[in-house]
From TrEMBL:
GO terms for biological process: response to bacterium. It is an enzyme of class 4 (lyase). This is Carbonic anhydrase. Residues 3-259 form the Alpha-carbonic anhydrase domain. It catalyses: hydrogencarbonate + H(+) = CO2 + H2O. It is found in: Cytoplasm. Its EC number is 4.2.1.1. Its main location: cytoplasm. The keyword Acetylation applies. It comes from Canis lupus familiaris. InterPro entries: CA_dom, CA_dom_sf, Carbonic_anhydrase_a-class, Carbonic_anhydrase_a-class_CS.
């Protein structure tokens, strides 16, 4: 594999294990969700997020995704409940998407691929640092939200409008006063399982909270996401699309539902 991982044939998901062996581990993400096999677990609690818009700091194009970064130096923007045993701090959110509207999500639901998938990454401050949390099976909690094509989502436009400032790889710009809970669907029902980051090093440290109800965005909004470049300003332009990892083996893991 080339030195840097990516999503192309020479450095894509099939090659990641060459530099990151855990990518072939027993708890990898994403996975296919087969709803007929998923049991309701009545012990699963509702989850809640209390985010401080003042903790939102910057937006960044790293050539692989677009990421919004939050101040996580103290308990400002927190996720609680659901399958979690304590509060988790919001660190960043980012998305995965396809080259067209008919695919792009990482998890699939009964064979359905959504246009994109939003990941809100939180870490457990009982482990003191984000780096330590990455080494723990319950160190990280990711809320995953599917994006489905339909009505435009006004709140998502606040984020999309900022993309013009980070068109190319390596660009970073201030992005402030944004509360990502404005993107949450009305229904809080979720599936949960233990898995990994879907990008190298693919650490197996994630409690996944995947929301059943997708968020609806317009086809024009998806097109705006695809207007980013994975290339730097001084390089020939390469569109940033297809930054999703395909489903990985479930290997006996159990997915649970918060709802009947
Ligand atoms: Zn992700």
């Amino acid at each position: 594999m080339a030195k840097e991982w990516g999503y192309a044939s020479h450095n894509g998901p099939d090659h990641w294990h060459e530099l990151y062996p855990i990518a072939k581990g027993d708890n990898q993400s994403p996975i296919e969700l087969h709803t007929k096999d998923i049991r309701h677990d009545p012990s699963l609690l509702p989850w809640s997020a209390s985010y401080d818009p003042g903790s939102c700091k910057t937006i960044l194009n790293n050539g692989k995704t677009c990421r919004v970064v939050f101040d996580d130096t103290y308990d400002r923007s927190m996720l609680r409940g659901g399958p979690l045993t304590g509060p988790y701090r919001l660190r960043q959110f980012h998305l995965h998407w396809g080259a067209s509207d008919d695919h792009g999500s990482e998890h699939t639901v009964d064979g359905v691929k959504y246009a994109a998938e939003l990941h809100l990454v939180h870490w457990n401050p009982k482990y003191n640092t984000y780096g330590e949390a990455l080494k723990q099976p319950d160190g990280i909690a990711v809320v995953g939200i599917f994006l489905k094509i339909g009505r435009e989502k006004g709140e998502f436009q606040l984020f999309l409008d900022a993309l013009d400032k980070v068109k190319t790889k390596g660009k970073e710009a201030p992005f402030t006063k944004f509360d990502p809970s404005c993107l949450f669907p009305a229904c809080r029902d979720y599936w949960t399982y233990h898995g990994s980051f879907t990008t190298p090093p693919c650490e197996e440290c994630i409690v996944w909270i995947l929301l059943k109800e997708p968020m609806t965005v317009s086809s024009d909004q998806m097109a705006k996401l695809r207007s980013l470049f994975s290339s730097a300003e001084n390089e020939p332009p390469v569109p940033l699309v297809g930054n999703w990892r395909p489903p990985q083996p479930i290997k006996g893991r159990v997915v649970k539902a918060s709802f009947k």
